[in-house]
Amino acid sequence: MKKLSFLILTVFILISSSCKKDEPNPNTGTEGSMSGMVKLYDESQTPLPKDGMIVSIYGSNPLISDTTDATGKYHFDNVKYGTYSLIFTKPNYGIFILNNISHQTEHTQISIIPSLGQKSTTKVLSNTAKDSLGSVFISVSTAPAATPDTAKYIRIFFNTNDMVSYEDFKSYTSVLISNSNPIEYRLNPHKLEDMGFTSGETVWFKSYGDSYYSNFHIEPLKGKHIFPNLNLNSAAASSFIVP
Asked: What is the per-residue pLDDT across 199-223, written as a single tens digit (0 to 9) for each?
């Protein structure tokens, strides 16, 4: 009887061990799903419907993509583990790229929720500068003009040559917000020094209309700074001499 009990126990252990070996281990897979969300706005801060934005995995072949639903959600299945960049596209919106998304588990919930804006409709009519009390005051006129009820958004680029642009610059501002026209921006000596300019140097600058949510990003392959929502209809560059 003891021998029979021992034999039954041995067989049970062997069967159990065999079953465990056949069970899949979720931690040893090589691919899984990814999901995230996005928020959409006009060129100011007014929320817009979140559906219809195409989100794709940069460089995937065949292309892995999804279109956001009414809540702004997107989802990918069967994505191999790795680190990815995501591309966000929709008509009237500048392209946005979200870099360095790590995917190493059965399901990755992307914690970064981009707030993306439409392209700017603000045109820069003129940008001038004057020196006063040791600082440089830049004045930018736009159309439509900023008003107490309607803010306008611009970005200014600086360089040491008259070819300055959003593609050729030494320094640039963040998005500047103003409820008055012209838009005024002050550069004191400390700020100019931080930007890399020295006293007596000629600095050229050019302004563009931008959006509150500018969709700024860094291109993943070349590391280039991208400003996708700029309105390229802009006045010619102007210059000033650093005090």
From this structure: 999 999 999 999 999 999 999 988 9
Indicate whether 15 pLDDT > 60: no
Instruction: Please state, in angstroms and rounded to a whole number, the distance separating the CA atoms of residues 97 and 15.
Output: 52
Tokens in use for 202? 């000629």
Query: Would you mind telling me the total number of residues written for the chain in this entry?
Result: 243
HSE, CB side, 13 Å, CA atoms: give it for residue 70.
Answer: 0
What residue ranges define each of the domains in the chain, with the CATH number in brackets? 27-117 (2.60.40.1120), 123-241 (2.60.40.10)
Q: 94 versus 16: which is more confidently predicted? A: 94
- Rounded to a whole number, what is the distance in angstroms from the first to the last CA of the chain? 104
Amino acid 52 reads G
Q: Give the strands of the sheet with 123-132, arranged side by side.
A: 123-132, 135-143, 183-187
